User: Which sequence fits this backbone?
């Protein structure tokens, strides 16, 4: 397992009970090629609402829409009377309740309109080391799509338009996205500074 700045180590059988377990996760946005993904470390005992805040930040979403987790046939999120299915309260469950061993996975869905689905996979389990700060992003590729772009299909169209100066929608689309957009942009250090530099959702602090 990756250990930047001495952030985690493989647990010894005699020490697991005494040290906090750290999960190495990989989250990948479904349906887009080349893939948009992040690899990161979090304590295994964080609650799902905290994981939601972390996923928002490492992916680049703005927490402007509803979300839910799905493991098997069970959904976890915040109760909403407009939803026509039962949803468990995500604040009552910890990450380690759903993912227990490497290769376990679940789905994180954000924005039920655009339908952004993410595969969240537990890659490895280790233990924390002194002075390590979590969450910690290890690696990733490519920028998060803009909010409200219209899902995967809308994002493909968006990229085609902004890369084609002669497209009739080009000027309006460039203005809509704030003047520029680099689909390959991703900065690990910027996200780690965001977690530990004083801004971001309070729930993400673990």
Assistant:
């Amino acid at each position: 397992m990756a250990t930047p700045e001495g952030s985690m180590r493989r647990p010894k059988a005699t020490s697991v009970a005494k040290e906090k377990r750290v999960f190495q996760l990989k989250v990948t946005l479904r349906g887009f090629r080349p893939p948009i993904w992040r690899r990161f470390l979090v304590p295994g005992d964080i609650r799902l609402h905290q994981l939601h805040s972390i996923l928002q930040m490492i992916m680049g979403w703005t927490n402007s829409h509803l979300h839910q987790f799905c493991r098997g046939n069970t959904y976890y999120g915040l109760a909403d009377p407009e939803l026509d299915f039962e949803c468990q309260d995500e604040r009552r469950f910890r990450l380690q309740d759903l993912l227990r061993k490497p290769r376990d996975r679940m789905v994180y869905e954000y924005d039920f309109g655009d339908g952004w689905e993410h595969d969240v996979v537990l890659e490895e389990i280790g233990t924390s080391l002194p002075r390590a700060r979590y969450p910690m992003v290890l690696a990733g590729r490519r920028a998060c799509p803009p909010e409200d772009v219209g899902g995967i299909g809308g994002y493909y169209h968006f990229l085609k338009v902004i890369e084609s100066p002669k497209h009739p929608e080009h000027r309006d689309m460039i203005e809509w996205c704030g003047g520029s957009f680099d689909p390959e942009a991703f900065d690990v250090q910027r996200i780690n500074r965001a977690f530990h530099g004083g801004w971001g959702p309070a729930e993400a602090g673990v």
